[in-house]
């Protein structure tokens, strides 16, 4: 048996526990956030685990886990950091001629004249997106220049606290009425996808973000081959073993919106039939890197 350390939220841990156990992998929940850890007397013994699932999302806690567990990860620190840097992902995909939204990277502090010039590059509304947050946190839509500058002012206030580290954000075109897909790629191959859709009442109230953590519903879908191939090309370009690729589809465009190297595992029925077989093989391969 292989012993797998999983730092993800309990939802993912519970879903993967039984299917992986049936394939010779014991799954252990090893949370590293929102707890206390005595560094000289940690709650884990490195000999208890062979491999980690994906590196913790809070990078400081991840460093502690790395030092105390002494294990390789399916998705390691570098891959999680790459995916978390939204601007880097967009820039790398753009350079590889993969379709992405028109985007401008802003590193604070930036003056009002420069911000106005950024806004005027787009047909409003625009999306303002903190560069390294997840789950749609801090993402806003601005319909006019005053609203846009106000959002930027709020970001500047947050960034006045220098310990936040990342003082940058993206300004992107808004793709109205886009269909939102989360496509899963494992070791370069498509393993499933969901469409994320807001309930009608949420849309009527003006909600527009399709994050599941914001109330969107994820429904398993069969994607066209070209959509699958695009997601696979993204994972290959970023060199991330297990990746969620967010695609936005409009009437005439398909673009890569974001990526997630710490994707939540959904219900098994939303993936290809051999998903857990392939995930177990990938975990064994990662464990061999020890």
From TrEMBL:
<dbReference type="GO" id="GO:0005524">
    <property type="term" value="F:ATP binding"/>
</dbReference>
<feature type="domain" description="ATP-grasp">
    <location>
        <begin position="90"/>
        <end position="288"/>
    </location>
</feature>
<protein>
    <submittedName>
        <fullName>RimK family alpha-L-glutamate ligase</fullName>
    </submittedName>
</protein>
<dbReference type="InterPro" id="IPR011761">
    <property type="entry name" value="ATP-grasp"/>
</dbReference>
<keyword id="KW-0436">Ligase</keyword>
<keyword id="KW-0547">Nucleotide-binding</keyword>
<keyword id="KW-0067">ATP-binding</keyword>
<dbReference type="Pfam" id="PF08443">
    <property type="entry name" value="RimK"/>
</dbReference>
<dbReference type="InterPro" id="IPR013651">
    <property type="entry name" value="ATP-grasp_RimK-type"/>
</dbReference>
<dbReference type="GO" id="GO:0046872">
    <property type="term" value="F:metal ion binding"/>
</dbReference>
<dbReference type="GO" id="GO:0005737">
    <property type="term" value="C:cytoplasm"/>
</dbReference>
<dbReference type="InterPro" id="IPR013815">
    <property type="entry name" value="ATP_grasp_subdomain_1"/>
</dbReference>
<dbReference type="GO" id="GO:0016879">
    <property type="term" value="F:ligase activity, forming carbon-nitrogen bonds"/>
</dbReference>
